[in-house]
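note to self: the first set is below, dont mix up w the second
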Amino acid sequence: MEEKSLRVVGTDKTFFNKITNTLTKILIPTQIGINGMRISLKRNALIKAFEISEEENDISKKDIVDKKYEDAYTAYLEALDKYVLDTIYKKVKNETATKFESMALSQYYGIIQLKKNEYVEYKYRKQKYLLELDKETVFNTAKEKVIEKYKRFYISKQDTLYKGILKNYSIKLADNTNIYDSTKEWIYIKIFETLEDYIKNILPTKISEKKYENIVKEYEKYEKFSVGKLDARDNIEKNMILLGISRNLFTHSLPLVVAEQCYMKLLKDARCLVQDTKIAAKRDKAFTMLMNLIEDYNIRLLSTKVYWDNSINRESFKSFYDKYKIIEKLKETDFIEYIKQKEILFIREDMKKLNNEKTDYSQLIKYYKRKLVDYEVMKEIRNKISKTGKYIRYKNNAGIKEVISA
């Protein structure tokens, strides 16, 4: 009987179905109005509770005030959740939804699917989604005074949520080592996507604040990669900028050991790109990007590293960094020589590391050696190169030589 009833009601040709569709279309705007009023009331209560919580300095009252704010926030989210389920779902079902509403519902169910296997991410992402959904309404319809008050709450809460998401990814990666783990490739991708999402949607509202002066230039670099179609080199360079900015914004949520693994992933991608690119002009551009990445990794990250698992690696980096600081002095007097000496230093440093990598970088090593020959710090033995594949490398200005394999 139930199946038969559903078949009758489900046909567009029946008289009862036409009445049902008509009534639903009439009732939906009313439901939107009721939900809108409910959300508005909850939002106003939330903003007030947030302001009181921010301004309260009395420790004896702080817990009570914060509890009221958390309750108001929970009630606000429940109202937004009800709006999605009661209103947007019905409009999509009755084919009266806008493209934005259809996309919003699709995103909602994408987040719901995380609940079973990735509950922590689901918890943060659902809150983030609901806030983003209401922000559009507030910014488009509310008075300027309300917008400013809501914006302070919105930025504060989104900061907390993004930090929670990144911390969750960091826990999945952290294993007390700084070794890139290719089996966790999806986590690295998620980290870069989350960083870009934050820098695209949240940072612009804060960038004018004085405490963010030191990342303005980095943000401007990112903006160049935020539009248009990006190739593999562009994507690596963009992710390098995102990771650099994260060292200022998410120091605790994305700790150094995790950031180091992310740099390892980018270095692997950049090395493979240089090695696999056949067109000389594109390969040279990829090489320049790799040199910038090596500098970023060593100077921005390793130079700030306090605890080293391996004392040999620590001493090796100290030696490298001392040479780097000497080369830096050339920057003001002879820029061309500065670039040359820096590339020589980076190539030699990277070649040391490639021997310990699992990936076959033999073609990249040949490319590196060709660069060193061009810079006249390594000499090719031309009459033997086809048979033995050897070069002569000048170790110092005294002319001491060392024969090495190609």
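second set (the one i keep forgetting abt)
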Amino acid sequence: MKERLITLVCALGALALFFTMFLHKDEGGIGGREIPRPTTEERGGNGYHAALQWLDTEHIRAASLRDRFDKLPHKKSLAATGNVLIVTLPAIAVFKTEEFRPLDRWVRAGNTLVVLAALSDNPAWAFSFASMTAGDLNLLTGLEFETTRIRDLRAHKGTEPAPRDRDNRDLASQLAAATREFTQPRRAKLVPNRDHAYFRGVHEAVALSDYEAQPWTVKVPYEGFVLALGHQRETGEGAFWTRPLGNGRIVVSALGTLFTNRALGLADNARLLANIIGTNLGPRGAVLFDDVHQGLGANYDPAKFYRDPRLHMTIGIVAALWLAWVLGATKLRVPVTRAPVPREAELVRATGGFLARVLTPAAAARRMFDRFLRRWPWELLEHQPRIPSADLQQLKSWYSQLGTSRVPLMRLHNLIVRINRQLNS
């Protein structure tokens, strides 16, 4: 009973350890914090729930896109043209190769792609994925982006001497500053370059950074052009561009937080969003928010999955069966096995093996002769007619060789046994 109780306690401890290690809440953020992604389901500061609800209030069709871009041309619920797709970068789901060509055809058919890339602002949800932004942005828009520092170095290459390497302490302090979160979000202001339909009634729009950000700039493509519509007031660098693509249009913002819940009500952000949608949305079009690349897929709802009572019932049944198996079929202490009592032959064999390792053949032969001759002296043996003369001569020959190691012990033993039988018969 005590063993089963100990087994039960250990099994419950193992279950507790398993749940602690594998079923704890995923801490995918910075420093163990979970950072919400910019999705329409997120009601916190990073999400687009406010924009989605606002558009619905204005009777503008808006929806969460939870299928990849290769499904866009085949969606029967969408009009062929006049739609606006809002994509936020960086994304946590990889853009697949088969998505780009259907997206390109979809935009060329007469739709608008709005890409909000966290380049010149640095929110917490973009901090760990910043290195992915420029590459994905190039694939989605066909535009290349680089930091202003790289642009300046490229422009002055060969005309100015290379700057000296900075002191290691300065580099360490810069890295520490780049990874230190602000106590209050830092504002970056977007202002228009000239009059444009997107900036009608917009004096400035505000983006929010939780970490130190650096300005970026666009590289004009070799084929086509890009129109800079706005710049960041603090740096003077471009931060809002547009370019036509077939019958459609691509709009790019280097400030990724303009239309999130916490920023939509600041300055003229809501007016800017309304102008972009009002200018590009068709009569039967819809505003789509790309949620699939932020982790919300059409076929997987984690909250619904964990709320399903069948999951809890399955886990309970498996745990109960495992506990029953552990308690009924296992023991903590291995049963003690007792070796059987050795037989006489085994004792003799073990003793003989021990003697054979420590007793020389000459000493053994001398001991065998001493025991035999103490009972049957030579005078008695020579006058016994029962003993064949050949056996007696062989016995004398081996007795004369006792000082050597040439006496065969087994043959001597057999001869002595035979003579004993002859004398005792």
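remember for set 2: The chain has two domains: 35-157+171-300, 344-424.
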